[in-house]
Amino acid sequence: MKISVIGAGLGGLSASAILASRGHTVDLFEQNENPGGKMQELRSTGFRFDTGPSLLTMPFLLEQVFERCGKSSADYLEWTQVEPVCRYQFPDGSVFHNYHDPRRNREELMRIAPEDVEAWDQFLDYSSDLYRRTAETFLFNPLQGIRDMQLSDIPDFLRIDAFTTVSKRVDDYFSSPRLRQLFKRFPTYNGSSPYQAPATLNVIPFVELRLGGYYIKGGMYNLARALVKLAEDCGVRIHIGVPVDMIVPDPGRKRAISGLMINGTLYEADAVVANSDATATYMSLMPRNALSQLNKRRISRIEPSCSGFVVLLGLNRIYPQLKHHNIFFSDNYEEEFRTIFDLREPPQDPTVYITNTSLTDPGDAPPDCSNFFMLVNAPYTAAGQLWHEWTETYTDHIIHTMEARGLEGLRDAILFRKVITPPDFERLYGSNKGSIYGTSSNNRNAAFIRPRNKSPWFDNLYLCGGSTHPGGGIPLVMQSAMNVDALVNRQAE
Ligand SMILES: Cc1cc2nc3c(=O)[nH]c(=O)nc-3n(C[C@H](O)[C@H](O)[C@H](O)COP(=O)(O)OP(=O)(O)OC[C@H]3O[C@@H](n4cnc5c(N)ncnc54)[C@H](O)[C@@H]3O)c2cc1C
Q1: Residue 252 domain-assigned (yes or no)
Q2: The model's pTM
Q3: pLDDT the model gives residue 151
Q4: What is the pLDDT of residue 159?
């Protein structure tokens, strides 16, 4: 088949490579000058920054993408576990280093939350149980139709803790305010609020804390580079700097796409894979009358994940207290999420995440310097937001906040500074309202209304990426590409 792919994000690159390795003729069109989508790299004045993802989980899904192409991931890239997993700093200034090493982890727990040492293991057992119940049905499965559900899944399906919130279940397990805040952080990994997301999302701690959190050697962007090489090795023709203007329905065939309109020319294709944001794909990349009003309304109701406010800092000093991953918590977590998701305003008392990759890859900063990637959860874009007015003062506010949380002299140490705002994420990658993970999981139906990997309205239109099933983040995006492969094969059966 002749297949055209829109977008060289991680999903588009992975799907292209797999489909080309199956013998299809694959053309991949990316509007930007660099492949990788939200995974990008910036180099300036001796500093290197990843501007998107910083943490890799479930690397076995990455391995599977390479295996489907008949290759070994080890020939393309390497990853490593960082220890401790993360340094958490709480509003009272206390610090918890979360180690993989159980003995060191227990020592840390005894120090900051002795009342909850047993609860830690019990919670992770519960989280592991959720993984066992949900992974096969909700993650490693296209969930395209009834044939994807097994009767044997039903008892598990009824016990995935979907009828309470992450926050309430965490409060049931822990009495320490510190561990409560720590475990409520995990739903933000797919851009959701712990106060709204179903407790099913308590599966994420198992994924990071028991399956492990990893860093890609040489920088996260090496994953994008590896996928570009994989795609090229499999025969994909990658067209960079080429925006797709429209997905063109076939006027002569019902439920069929005839190809892509690019710069006034129709590129015919037997199938199209859209790695562009699913909402943008259906609402902006298709002719007005391609979908019914009802279906358009359904799509426009899908809630995007939160966005992010990123501050990249090249610093002329090292902060010896910091680790590779660091989280500085806000004072009032519930208020922070209310501000982001209900008021849709930037929080004035934000939780700040800092990755300092020069600790793991010293080449990422000059000697005795640091490269900070600082991420604050921010609302997706909405009417009334004045980011063009807010950006400068909000950046200063975050820097000031971090000085108050112990990073003394931060402002004076800055040699390089760049900021990425929610409108930037929307403009740069076409993501729905600047969402950085795709769709949110702020209600218990989210898994069912998230756009599928095969369009219900066109037989030869497929979708992959964070805004589609099974969700956002590197590993799930890899899974979405493998789902597209399975569904293309199914269609050919
Ligand atoms: C700041 C930040 C931090 C993150 N942290 C993590 C993390 O630590 N761990 C993790 O697992 N995930 C993280 N994520 C999420 C992760 O980056 C995404 O889920 C993933 O990269 C999305 O991949 P995707 O396949 O959906 O493609 P996207 O990255 O969304 O790329 C889509 C591509 O399609 C292109 N495109 C769109 N429209 C067109 C068109 N009309 N024509 C041609 N091309 C088009 C875009 O230019 C883009 O390149 C983070 C994201 C951000 C932004």
Answers
A1: yes
A2: 0.97
A3: 62
A4: 83
Other beta carbons within 10 Å of 479: 26
pLDDT at 201: 95
Closest CA to ligand 1's atom 37: 276
Joined tokens for residue 61: 């899904």
- Is there a domain that residue 462 lies in? yes
Kindly state if the Cβ of 472 falls inside 6 Å of ligand 1: yes
Residue 44 forms part of a structural domain: no
Which among 84, 62, 325, 81 is positioned nearest to 214, based on CA atoms? 81
Please list the helix, strand and coil fractions of the chain in percent, rounded to the nearest 5, in that order: 40, 20, 35
470 C-beta closer than 6 A to ligand 1: no
CB-CB contact of 56 with 220 (8 Å): yes
For residue 28, what is the domain's CATH number? 3.50.50.60
Q: Quote the distance between the C-alpha of residue 308 and its chain's center.
A: 11
Number of domains in the chain: 1
Token pair of 352 as six digits = 């700040």
Is 382 a member of any domain? Answer: no
Q: Is the CB of 8 under 6 A from ligand 1?
A: yes
Atom 7 in ligand 1: which residue has the minimum CA distance? 53
254 lies in which domain range?
Answer: 2-35+219-302+445-492
Burial class (CB in 10 A: 0-12, 13-18, 19+), 23: exposed
**Ligand 1 centroid distance, CA of 9 (Å):** 5
| Whole-number Å distance between alpha carbons of 153 and 293 | 35
What would the pLDDT profile of 429-444 be if each residue is shown by its tens digit? 999 999 999 999 998 8
The residue among 26, 149, 81, 53 whose CA lies nearest residue 477 is 53
- Which positions of the chain have pLDDT values less than 70? 151-153
